[in-house]
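Lab notebook, design round three. We kept the backbone fixed and only want residue identities now. Task for the bench partner: fill in a sequence for the structure below.
Input structure tokens:
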């Protein structure tokens, strides 16, 4: 009798679990400061961590969601990780802001078949972001990657110390990656063996333009960006990198890069950066820009800008129009130091 009741209770529990809809994660905006060196999981349930990514104690990350109202995990953006959005245990860090509604034009959803902690996707609604343009501040990057060729060559009077550098042009929603890429190339990329990846086919003119805005070509960053993101752009490598270079050049000719160059060695607020975007690309443009930082408090340094884009990204539409058509996002990091390049 007891065994029968136990089986019946188990069956009811399975039925209720099946019928109960999986609740989506709670969208957030703010910062997460790591107190411990903890893993960044792609999936909580499966415990997957491509690249064995960890948050670093003392560094601050943009937080975009938590797994439930009483959070046990937070979803943060980790620069250099693929995918960049990772789940980190709540006890590993401190969150400085409370949960907020998701940004306008975007919903955070979860596949019921994957369960809590599965990799969510940003689903573009009407007017939603179709791409993001990521631009880094090279002196801040090189402060943490002194072994890179481009960082050993970085000087205070070089172009890379006076303008934002192209990180990538990434089709959305997040997770749109490795389109028709061979398994061995995917694995090489995940192993950070960029030297072993095929060289994207570009004209000499495009190669020259790309090298001017992407210092990372000296470490074969272009091979990584093509394999992961460019293959999903819907054009050949020459068109993809030509367009990415065009957008980066436009920002570097604007008030935004001028602000960074003029502010080296000083703290700049997210508000000031967003205001520079408003000046360069029209009122409200700054609301489409998220700021990433490393470190915390007085040691916080601005590392990257992520700009929402929508519209004719593959064509010839001006950057101003692409930004204005995209949804607003949280500013992310509230303020940070603009790192200076070494004098040599």
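Proposed sequence:
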């Amino acid at each position: 009798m007891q065994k029968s009741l136990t089986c019946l209770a188990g069956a009811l529990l399975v039925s209720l679990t099946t019928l109960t809809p999986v609740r989506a994660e709670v969208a957030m905006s703010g910062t997460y400061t790591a107190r411990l060196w903890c893993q960044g999981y792609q999936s909580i349930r499966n415990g997957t961590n491509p690249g064995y990514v960890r948050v670093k104690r003392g560094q601050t990350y943009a937080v975009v969601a938590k797994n439930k109202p009483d959070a046990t995990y937070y979803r943060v953006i980790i620069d250099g990780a693929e995918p960049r959005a990772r789940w980190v245990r709540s006890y590993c860090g401190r969150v400085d802001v409370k949960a907020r509604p998701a940004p306008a034009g975007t919903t955070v959803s979860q596949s019921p078949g994957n369960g809590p902690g599965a990799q969510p996707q940003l689903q573009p609604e009407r007017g939603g972001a179709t791409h993001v343009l990521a631009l880094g501040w090279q002196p801040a990057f090189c402060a943490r990657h002194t072994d890179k060729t481009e960082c050993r060559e970085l000087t205070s009077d070089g172009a890379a110390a006076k303008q934002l550098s192209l990180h990538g042009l990434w089709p959305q929603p997040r997770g749109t990656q490795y389109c028709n890429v061979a398994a061995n190339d995917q694995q090489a990329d995940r192993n950070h063996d960029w030297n072993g990846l095929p060289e994207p086919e570009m004209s000499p003119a495009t190669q020259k333009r790309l090298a001017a805005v992407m210092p990372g070509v000296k470490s074969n960053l272009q091979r990584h960006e093509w394999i992961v993101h460019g293959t999903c752009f819907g054009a050949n490598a020459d068109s993809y990198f030509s367009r990415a270079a065009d957008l980066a050049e436009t920002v570097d000719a604007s008030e935004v890069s001028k602000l960074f160059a003029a502010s080296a060695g000083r703290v700049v607020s997210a508000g000031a950066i967003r205001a520079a975007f408003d000046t360069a690309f029209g009122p409200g443009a700054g609301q489409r820009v998220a700021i990433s930082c490393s470190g915390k408090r007085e040691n916080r340094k601005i590392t990257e800008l992520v700009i929402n884009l929508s519209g004719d990204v593959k064509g010839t539409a001006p950057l101003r129009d692409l930004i204005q058509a995209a949804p607003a996002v949280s500013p992310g990091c509230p303020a940070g130091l603009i790192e200076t390049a070494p004098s040599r």
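Keep this in mind before ordering anything: DSSP finds ten helices and 15 strands in the chain.
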